[in-house]
Amino acid sequence: MLLKVHNVYAGYEGGDVLKGISMEVEQGTTTCIVGPNGAGKSTVLRVLSGLLKPRLGDITFENRSIATLTPRQILALGIVQVPQSHSLFPGMTVQENVRLGAYMLNDAALVERRLHEVEEKFPVVKTRAGDKAGNLSGGQQRLVEFARCLMLDPRLILLDEPSMGLDPRTFKQVVETIKVMQSSGRTIVLVEQNARTGLSLATNGIVLESGRVRLEGSHTDVLNNPEIGHLYLGGTLSNA
Ligand SMILES: Nc1ncnc2c1ncn2[C@@H]1O[C@H](COP(=O)(O)OP(=O)(O)O)[C@@H](O)[C@H]1O
Ligand SMILES: [Mg+2]
Q1: pTM of the predicted model as reported, rounded to 2 decimal places
Q2: Count of beta carbons in the 10 Å neighbourhood of residue 142
């Protein structure tokens, strides 16, 4: 297993939000976490990226405990999060923002090579290289955020609601981008409001409810679970 979360309790001043979460992520898979607002989905990602420390429990990455590491140390191991909301520096250019993704790398030639790779994958990085990131549409900014996260050649990518607020065309682009990352063997943990879309993209699904894992399994197990279907995949969710 690439990642193991074992009985993690974590939260904020108000108390535990995560109440004994366990999950495993295998190399090369995509795990989609779904569940109602406030269930603790973003908190799980925050714990994985080290922004929030578990009060109890353990997290291992490649068989090494990361529960007490700093966010920077975790980033250096190759766990990279694309945050939920606008995270680019709007006054900096697109290319400057993308280069920031590689700030940890000391090898200049490697940085140029990676930049070239992400330009190939995300043409907007090249065509709008000199434009201020703040002048791009929300969808274009999302793609630049993906490009920036790939600069570190991550071992595990954490995506918090990557489709949020996107117009249908950009939404499609984001879905395509996730598929490209999957086919190049990336390991992804994804939180998605649009449960059906997220689970369809994923290999594995986890349903979180009030800080507990209600159900986990292959994406079809979760999609086909009648109770879950009723709760999260009913007519009110779009079927994009
Ligand atoms: N920084 C914070 N300080 C205090 N409480 C928080 C903070 N962030 C989230 N919470 C609370 O933790 C719970 C889970 O939040 P979150 O993980 O963001 O849920 P989700 O992503 O599933 O919607 C919510 O009750 C929320 O109010
Ligand atoms: Mg959230």
Answers
A1: 0.92
A2: 26
Cβ proximity of 189 and 158 under 8 Å:
yes
pLDDT of residue 233: 64
**Distance (Å, whole) CA 237 – CA 85:** 21
11 Cα nearest atom in ligand 1 = 12
Backbone angles phi, psi at 171, to 5 degrees: -55, -45
| Residues in the ligand 1 pocket, defined by CB under 6 Å | 12, 14, 17, 35, 37-43
pLDDT tens-place string over residues 72-99: 999 999 999 987 777 899 999 999 999 9
- Residue reference for tokens 């009913």: 234
- The alpha carbon of 193 and the centre of ligand 2 are apart by a number of angstroms equal to 8
Rounded Cα–Cα distance for residues 100 and 96 (Å): 6
